[in-house]
């Protein structure tokens, strides 16, 4: 049974199964399903109870790793502009349902699920858009709804589930209801209309007749164009007279797939709920039976202690046993009565004096943007004791009804320059520890104002070192987990959607409580977590790798990298033109026009019209599979050019939309450069993660992908320098598995892939067939990722039995590798984590899972994590040393990017060679003196005017 209260295993995980719950649809179903019910205060709650029970049941039964509940924001949408009578016949909402709408949203939040809605769009449009996003990321999608309007979305990878009837809805069910396949549903709906939503349709045509017509003519447009051919006079005349209404109806029923959604799919990652928050919601609404049921279920799992007749009692401390946070902290006393708003110099001077005397102060900044390069400072908060904190506004303006007087006005606040001048001695005082949560951002903001924030501690990184991928490390989650405190959320003070404001527009009383609480909670987390670094022997990881990296990465983010917008525009135009040309070629080869982006239409062309391959394979929805692997196989085996043309079209389309188009919008207007943000606590192995934009995922294995790196350029008079480690994970595998032959090969600088081929296949290195070396290379890299015979066979295009024999021969020649793998898996099973050479814990949740697929996946992760994690530790150590090395050599170089095993620098042209040489030496020596590694680390450097040519 899935445990909805367990913490998510990854802070940022690639979706595998996404659940999109049609919240609006189930409000009404829940309302009509239960008799009237009220709380003791008279508030009606029958719909809330029905909705809550449905959510609990869903979370109990689903294996989805990403879940969101999606609502209609209001009745008025863009469809009202198309047809003024749209939904005009809807009856008024029942009076006793209206007060239940906000309570239902509270229910969603009590389960710690995203509550998604957008003005101007229906929930169905958001579901369509998110479903496309999920499928594009390779995930399966389940739409929790029975709404016929959503049936048009069903296709390969997307299904529906009716939780009221406990049944799936797929292509067969759609065929039964509408008489057509899902891709023709909108054409049938356009003809027969919808009395519920007042979609006009064509008078006199019902579902059965509409289905017959669409099946006969193929589409609504084809039907309307050929309406004169219809033999029945009345039907022919009706269609001809109502063609415009039919087309309008199609616009009304067609769901939008391109809603500019504000919450990314990654935000739907299932985090698990806080039992006490859910219990509080259930108690408040007097859902006693549901409360008892939930308590008993959680008690059965050992996660919550239950005493009959009493509320569950959480244990007093957090316990972590084999990758699970089994108990949460007892709630700490928490109030906001002593939070202060600082608007005069005397009060600020007292705060500074108190912090200086305390020798440590929690520190946080508020800005009007999360983009550090463009963010303006709005306020600063400080705290030196629990339940105490102050907020110093410096950039609030135009606040409606602010604390200091009604109306819209700039509030009374100290000048920014004065506040910074007074704070600078404290913030740079080496005797006062500044404590922040995700303090990298604050370091960068202060650096923009000429203040070097030091010394520092970061509670996010302390938590990350201690508990890794066991849960997320945002302040709200840690406050709940370790302190039992429900914090004020950012959205609570800024709003959401179109009503959201930037922080400089937040009223000062709300800003004070939110910002001061952030500092207060950060201080308490520091008191709770910092001592554990010593007792759990993790101080070295934090003190020598994570904490010193903060100012280094902050400087990188501030520096950004220059992008040639003209080159991006040229590439976008080039990709766009070539996409159009490829589309024409594909249509010509197919003998007809069709939507290349539609897997269903493409499958029909490939396997029914052209009859390529062995007839193709259909998924559960009845559509053919047309993934890249299928197309690649067809391109080779069929001899027909169309599959390869489609692959080329897909590649160019993605490069254009994801990179060349998007990057143009992400250039800072203040600097003319792109500033990526690095997440320091987002992966299970310690690797940094780039986002907004993600510059680590720019494809470089294809010629077209590499072109994008040409747009990243050096400033005039400067050069870009790329330095990356050569085969670092293979070198670490030889070291950590202690394989003498491989270690010696690296020490002697022998081609490791040729050596492996020679050892495994028994062929001489001299004159070796390149194909044999390629196979050895695939095995070398595959082994450290726990590759299976199936995976190797697919990669090399060979029979699975042959791949299995290769792997067996490899283990026979290097038995130490197998020993390392088995030893590592056993350690992971016993303690729930593996460690890097530098002592970082890489947690592997699910290593003892009863699900064979999940268990196997985590075993492979356990094998690779010490290697990838050690490589991550090493490049971080190199990054930490780089600024001091450049300063000592009097070089004006600066580090711009980190991409896995590569660092990118910018330096004056005259210093480029010296910078490259020094950076290479620092990287090659980064493991020392902490670890004596017998295998040499090799870094290779390149210098050029753009990133592509430098790497």
Which key terms come to mind for this protein?
alpha/beta; Nucleotidyltransferase, domain 5; 951 residues; six-stranded mixed beta sheet; disordered N terminus; Rossmann fold; 27 strands; 5 domains; globular; Taq DNA Polymerase, Chain T, domain 4
Structural commentary:
The protein folds into five domains: 17-170 and 255-268, 3-Layer(aba) Sandwich (Rossmann fold); 339-560, Ribonuclease H-like superfamily/Ribonuclease H (Nucleotidyltransferase, domain 5, 2-Layer Sandwich), CATH 3.30.420.10; 563-674, Taq DNA Polymerase, Chain T, domain 4; 712-728 and 871-950, Alpha-Beta Plaits (2-Layer Sandwich), CATH 3.30.70.370; 732-866, DNA polymerase, domain 1, CATH 1.10.150.20. Helix 2 packs parallel to helix 4 (100-110), helix 18 packs across helix 20 and helix 21 crosses helix 34. The protein is built from 36 helices and 27 strands. The radius of gyration is 30 Å and the shape is globular.
Short structural summary:
It comes from Dongia sedimenti. The chain is an alpha/beta fold and 951 residues long.
Approximate strand percentage: 5-15%
CATH class of the largest domain: Alpha Beta
Compute the CA-based radius of gyration: 30 Å
Biggest sheet descriptor:
6 strands, mixed
The overall pLDDT average reads 86
At the fourth level of CATH, the homologous superfamily of the largest domain is Ribonuclease H-like superfamily/Ribonuclease H
Question: Structural class, please?
Answer: alpha/beta
Could you name the CATH topology of the largest domain? Nucleotidyltransferase, domain 5
Q: Reading side by side through the largest sheet, how are the strands ordered?
A: 3-2-1-4-5-6
The CATH architecture of the largest domain comes to 2-Layer Sandwich
Sequence stretches where pLDDT stays below 50 over 5 or more residues: 1-12, 302-317, 400-408
Q: Into how many domains do the coordinates divide? A: 5
Number of strands: 27
What is the helical fraction, as a range of percent? 40-55%
How many helices does DSSP assign? 36
Distance between the termini: 49 Å
C-alpha geometry: globular
Pfam families: 5_3_exonuc (PF01367), 5_3_exonuc_N (PF02739), DNA_pol_A (PF00476), DNA_pol_A_exo1 (PF01612)
Family: Belongs to the DNA polymerase type-A family.
Catalytic activity: DNA(n) + a 2'-deoxyribonucleoside 5'-triphosphate = DNA(n+1) + diphosphate
Domain 5'-3' exonuclease: 13-271
